Amino acid sequence: MDYSSAVREIKKKYKGLGWPSLFIKIRFFTAPYRKLEADVPRDGFIIDLGCGYGIFSNLLALLSSQREILGLELDMSKIKYADRGLGNVHFQAADITRAQIPSADCILLIHVLHHLNSYSEQEVLIRACYDKLKEGGKLIICEIDRYPWWKFILTQMADHLLYPGDRIYYRFPAELLSFLKTLQFNIQYQKSHQGTPFSHVTYVCEKRTSK
C-alpha cells in the first residue's frame, strides 16, 4: 500500500468518532508524517511514546506488516480511540516518564518533549530511550524550531489552544542537538516544516554499535 492510500484508510478507520475524526484530518495536514515514516525502519519493534489517538502508530502498522508497534499514552480520552483493529500494533495507557520501556529497534517521540513538565524530564526520558534502544536502533524526535518565525507563532497558538493553561517547554535545535551529542548517537538533523503550517524539525538519532 502506498502512503496516500494508507492515509485514506486511516481516515476511514477513525470515521464517525466526532472530535477525534476531525483531529485526524487536521493532523495529517499539520504533521510531517510522510517524511517521518520514511525514517522509521520497515521491520522490527517500534515504540511510539505519547502516541495520542494512535494516528502515526496505525499508519506505520498499515504501511508495513513487518513492523510490530507499541503505542503508549497517558491521556485516556485519547488512547481509548487508538485501537483501530490492526494486528501488528498494540496500545497501552501509561505515563511515559514512569513506564518501563522495553528494548526496541526504534523509539518515537513525535511532538511529545515540549509537553513534558520540565527540561530535566525531557533529558531523563531521552536517556531512558537511549538505554532501551538496541545497537544500531533509532530514536526519532520531531520537535519545534523558532523558524520560520510565522510558523512558530502558529505552532504556539495551536499548542495553547489545545492545551490551555499548560506550560510548553520548547527545546530548540541548538540546545537539543547539544544534549543529544552527549549520548552515543549518530545524529541526522533536518527541517521538516515544508508543506505544513508548523515549524517542525526532526532528529534521527542512531545508537552507535560497540564495535
Shape: globular
Structural class: alpha/beta
Major sheet characteristics: 7 strands, mixed
Q: Which series of helices and strands comes N to C?
A: HHHEHEHEEHEHHEE
Q: Quote the beta fraction.
A: 15-25%
Task: Please describe what this structure looks like.
The protein is an alpha/beta fold and 211 residues long. It has a single domain, classed as Vaccinia Virus protein VP39 (Rossmann fold), CATH 3.40.50. Helices cover 37% and strands 25% of the residues. The protein contains eight helices and seven strands; from the N terminus they run αααβαβαββαβααββ. A seven-stranded mixed sheet has the order 3-2-1-4-5-7-6, sandwiched between helices. β2, α5 (76-79) and β3 form a beta-alpha-beta unit. α1 crosses α4 (55-63). It is globular and about 45 Å long. The N and C termini lie far apart (37 Å).
